[in-house]
Design a protein that fits this description.
Ferritin, 77% helix, signal, DUF4142
Length: 177
Amino acid sequence: MKNLMLLSAIMALLIVVQSCGDNRKAKNFNQKTLVDDKGHQFLEEANEAGLAEIKAATLAENNSKNPRVIDFAKMMITDHAQLGNQLKSIAADKLVTLTDTISQAHKAMINGMMKLTGIEFDKAYMQMMQNDHSKAVQLFQDATGNTDKKVINFAKETIPTLNMHLDSAKAIFASLK
């Protein structure tokens, strides 16, 4: 009897472990997400990037003394919150569960910026914005080749906003002395 119970427990554990490796499992039991692996990855990465932008922008809005940097940070909060809501809607429609955490790399960057003040803070923030928006533009351009129409349309509609953010970040960074 003990062996039978042990065998049952091991089998149950193996089934759970196997299902945890499937990143396309939806939150609702055995349903699969309604996007392919690339679409799933795009939704997760775009969500994380947007959350990181908002967190960094909130820090910049509170720590910077430069009006251009503060205005840029406010724009980041507004635009990325709006884009995040659209992204969450698409993810919910496609049965993709998104997290509300940022990556360790972004946490490290933001924690590093917390230690800076004045022009050094502004430069670090605007440099981060340049780097992150360059990566985001590429991420969204890659997503235009996805198989899901909602993902494609969202990516295409968002690219001009991301390019505008990138151009603004470059201009502000260049003006910092």
